[in-house]
């Protein structure tokens, strides 16, 4: 059987040999409890701290201790939202975000609004997946305690102007948090230059293991742990440290960041997207890009409106032909609700919200993968249109 073409790297990425080897070796060598004072514990702790240094260096954190290892993006996001609210509610109850954030941000904010009396401003996004910086400036006030705006949108790939946002927020009373799960390893991130106070990352988006990530917390920012238990992670996150996963995560960071690899990957992804667009044009497929292909877009993601073709049906047909894509976020793929990202960008009456697919690229994708995708679309879409016409008649 021919190998499937995997084009849903925004959902998750496969572990690569380097990260699997690092995890396997760590399970043999560093199996001790990193909080224990015995020999095995000290060995595990030393390895963990080396991994933490790799993570800190990747975003230009000032101190290794600013990296708190978590179970991933959702825990990191939830921790920022709930614990900032808890720690700073006496200073104000206003939070700013965007209408197309990940659910790990939006749902905690809805909870704070509904049950705890917080006021949340949801910034509009335009058809290119960008915010109006003036709207952000106008929304900031003395009651604003947190601004949470993602680095790269997980469905359309728009790259938000994080540096400009940081410049605006730094002169206010608010902390600036960015969900960088989709941006980490794909676009430049410098927490010092970008004035980022809090940042969320997940390992499985960069060919590392699942259920591990980190929360960057600028030195001096303090709020209570989301969970209760021991004093691990500098009293910020209890629970026995997952040293093998942390070392595998660090290896993924090294692979993606060493020797200009991030830029090389970006160049490869852009070339693959150009190949896809050329193939669609040559095949006379009726489509439009959601967002755009040039300005302020992350290299690895493309979201396409296939006009008149329902995304759920197209996704199934592609899967039957060995092609794996996505109709939206993997976290909401089981929902019948339309993509809140496309609704925010185009409105709830736009046909795009039911007729769009996301293709997201990874290190293992090749030109042949794109050729196979184009060939599948070229075969499937005319068939679907013919079947739809027969049903109408």
TrEMBL record:
It catalyses: (sulfur carrier)-H + L-cysteine = (sulfur carrier)-SH + L-alanine. PANTHER family: CYSTEINE DESULFURASE, CYSTEINE DESULFURYLASE FAMILY MEMBER. Belongs to the class-V pyridoxal-phosphate-dependent aminotransferase family. NifS/IscS subfamily. Pfam families: Aminotran_5. Keywords: Iron, Iron-sulfur, Metal-binding, Pyridoxal phosphate, Transferase. It comes from Limosilactobacillus coleohominis. This is Cysteine desulfurase. Residues 5-373 form the Aminotransferase class V domain. Its cofactor is pyridoxal 5'-phosphate. InterPro entries: Aminotrans_V_dom, Cysteine_dSase, PyrdxlP-dep_Trfase, PyrdxlP-dep_Trfase_major, PyrdxlP-dep_Trfase_small. Gene3D superfamilies: 1.10.260.50, Aspartate Aminotransferase, domain 1 (3.90.1150.10), Type I PLP-dependent aspartate aminotransferase-like (Major domain) (3.40.640.10).
């Amino acid at each position: 059987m021919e190998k499937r073409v995997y084009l849903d790297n925004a959902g998750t990425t496969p572990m690569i040999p380097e990260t699997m080897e690092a995890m396997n070796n760590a399970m043999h060598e560093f199996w001790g409890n990193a909080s224990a004072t015995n020999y095995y514990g000290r060995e595990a702790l030393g390895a963990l701290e080396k991994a933490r240094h790799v993570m800190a260096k990747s975003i230009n954190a000032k101190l290794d201790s600013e990296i708190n290892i978590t179970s991933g993006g959702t825990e990191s996001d939830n921790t920022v939202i709930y614990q900032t609210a808890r720690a700073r509610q006496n200073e104000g109850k206003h939070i700013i975000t965007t209408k197309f954030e990940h659910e790990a941000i939006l749902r905690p904010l809805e909870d704070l609004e509904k049950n705890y009396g917080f006021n949340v401003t949801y910034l509009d996004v335009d058809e290119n997946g960008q915010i109006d910086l003036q709207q952000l400036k106008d929304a900031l006030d003395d009651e604003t305690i947190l601004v949470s705006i993602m680095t790269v949108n997980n469905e359309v790939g728009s790259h938000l102007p994080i540096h400009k946002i940081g410049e605006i927020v730094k002169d206010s009373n608010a902390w600036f948090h960015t969900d960088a799960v989709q941006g980490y390893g794909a676009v430049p991130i410098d927490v010092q230059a970008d004035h980022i106070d809090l940042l969320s990352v997940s390992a499985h988006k960069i060919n590392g293991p699942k259920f591990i990530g980190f929360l960057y917390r600028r030195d001096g920012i303090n709020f209570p742990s989301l969970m209760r238990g021991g004093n691990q992670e500098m009293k910020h996150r209890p629970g026995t440290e997952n040293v093998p996963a942390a070392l595998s995560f660090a290896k993924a960071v090294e692979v993606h960041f060493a020797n200009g690899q991030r830029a090389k990957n970006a160049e490869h992804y852009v070339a693959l997207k150009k190949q896809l667009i050329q193939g669609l044009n040559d095949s006379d497929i009726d489509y439009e890009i959601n967002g755009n292909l040039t300005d302020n877009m992350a290299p690895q993601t493309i979201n396409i409106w296939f006009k008149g073709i329902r995304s759920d049906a197209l996704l199934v047909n592609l899967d039957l032909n060995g092609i794996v894509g996505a109709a939206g976020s993997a976290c909401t793929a089981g929902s019948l609700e339309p993509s809140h990202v496309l609704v925010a960008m185009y409105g709830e009456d736009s046909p795009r919200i039911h007729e769009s697919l996301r293709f997201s690229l990874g290190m293992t994708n090749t030109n042949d993968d794109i050729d196979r995708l184009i060939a599948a679309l070229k075969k499937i879409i005319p068939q679907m249109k013919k079947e739809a016409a027969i049903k109408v008649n």
